[in-house]
């Protein structure tokens, strides 16, 4: 006979959101192992989250509005015209559009199947995970307007770099026959509502679009709050337990070494772009160089699991390897340039 007394708590844990679960476990361990640090950590995270709240609210509204109006349809314009124009437009749209990586998989799959040049798609893929309206507001609210603008320009720049590099080597064996068999891929981020045709900016006159607005606002607010709450707690622990001189020694200074290390560490370590912002804030406070911070967020954003899955799902491993190579190289170049500007 099954012991329901044991299974019921286990079922609750399994059904709990993993981010909230991680936050609860971290706080429980902190309370158990270092109670004097528990209250300051909770106060720090709460104050930081409240300070970011206006940026979260505006970002949630902006993304929900664009979702409800059907602005995704404007994405098709990035893949029309001559190839050079497409690369520029795709990099700009990718760096500014509020669409998560998995949302654009079906669209990109259709464009590739219809013969859209891989160079333009590569530009979009590289720029897309790095910046969107919500990311810009969270970044500017925590790291400052200058860093947010620098990352936005870096997102477009890395997209252009990868797009034109792909164009130059388009006829090489690396990019020959790049596609896998196009899969059917679902999406779990944001609202699943999508609209075809011309965007309807007065969305509230349509019941379906109004529902899409509410669904998108709720899901994005929940997404941002849970990740930022976890990130701010981790930031508090980093400031409390990681020696500043260690960070300054490894990731500080003006040379190229910390920038390369930031890109290399950022690529596999990145979990979520929003959560990375408070962590970078903590590392900068402890001596991380500006260039290393920029290379970390660029390399990490492009290689993050959602962004990488979007590319891996559609292209062959050699093209995926090129995507990662462009990410690391572009991140190092962005870090070097930002280090010069910041200095």
From TrEMBL:
Pfam families: ArsP_1
InterPro entries reported in the protein's UniProt record: DUF318, UPF0718
Keywords: Cell membrane, Membrane, Transmembrane, Transmembrane helix
Transmembrane segments: 19-36, 48-66, 147-170, 223-244, 256-280, 292-314, 320-338
Main location (coarse class): membrane
Membrane topology reported for the UniProt record: Multi-pass membrane protein
Highest taxon, organism lineage: Bacteria
Sequence similarity: Belongs to the UPF0718 family.
Family annotation (PANTHER family): UPF0718 PROTEIN YCGR
Annotated protein name in UniProt: Putative permease
Species in which this protein is naturally found: Roseovarius albus
Lineage: Bacteria, Pseudomonadati, Pseudomonadota, Alphaproteobacteria, Rhodobacterales
